[in-house]
Amino acid sequence: MYERRFFATINLAYVYDKDAWRGEHIVIMYKLIAIDVDDTLLNDELVVTEGTKRAMEEAIAKGVTVTLATGRMYASARQIAEQIQLNVPIITYQGSLVKTLLDGKVLYERSVPTDAAKELYAFTEKHGLHLQLYVDDQLFVKEANEKALMYSRLSKIPYTVAPDFEELLEQPNTKMLIIDEPDYLDEIAEQLKALIGDRVHITKSKAHYLEFMHKEGTKGHALRFMAEHLGCTMDQTIAIGDAWNDHEMIEAAGLGVAMANAIPALKEVADYVTLSNNDEGVRHVFEKFVLNAE
């Protein structure tokens, strides 16, 4: 049985056998780093700092694969990836879609089961909720209300108004999302877990976003796929995040890192807590565990 420990006083990340430890340090050479976007890679001004960009570039030059792992649509995440000049597959839609940047090839894809999607839609209609559908990397809403406008501005993605969702529900939905007040979403989340929780993964990327994906459409599943695709072990992976939807990949990664601004529940399962998104927390992780590790 192995236990992973990370000491803040040194730059070594090592694994030891707690039953037969002889004090031998084993340096882990990380090969894959997956980074959440909002409130992790981006600061509150929605910017990737130059210092963070440089740290990422240095890691890539050392042979490390750096990718994004976000709840955003591929079209939205691609804009961020191009800003930092990534050319690898990226994890989008909470892990429901892994797609290459160079040629747009789909490597991993999971859709919300049709029966569950229809039940969720019926629930939102009954309770007058704002529901968004994601089909073929396009965003669909029933009406152009303030929730849709705010979401579109943040993601920098246009939406299409489709008053009748019936036809769209027959197509593969990569993700479905409800926008509302945080406390109310927590309340209905429990009802929806009882209704469709056996068929879908339910999570939050932000306090006012309740999201629904395939059971295997998590960042944890996608990170495992990426590691296998690239030929590295999970011990050689780092995942960095801040919110509910990062839980699965933080637990799955060899080194799970929570931001200082992360929700308390994520800090509890993380191996390491870095600085906040406004203090270049991602840069700190690169420098501590990759660039300056000995």
Automatic annotation (TrEMBL):
PROSITE patterns: COF_2 (PS01229). InterPro entries: Cof, HAD-like_sf, HAD-SF_hydro_IIB, HAD_sf. Transmembrane segments: none annotated. SUPFAM superfamilies: HAD-like. GO terms for molecular function: magnesium ion binding; phosphatase activity. Gene3D superfamilies: 3.30.1240.10, HAD superfamily/HAD-like. GO terms for cellular component: cytosol. PANTHER family: HAD SUPERFAMILY HYDROLASE-LIKE, TYPE 3, PHOSPHOSERINE PHOSPHATASE. This is Cof subfamily of IIB subfamily of haloacid dehalogenase superfamily/HAD-superfamily hydrolase, subfamily IIB. It comes from Paenibacillus algorifonticola. The lineage of its organism: Bacteria, Bacillati, Bacillota, Bacilli, Bacillales.
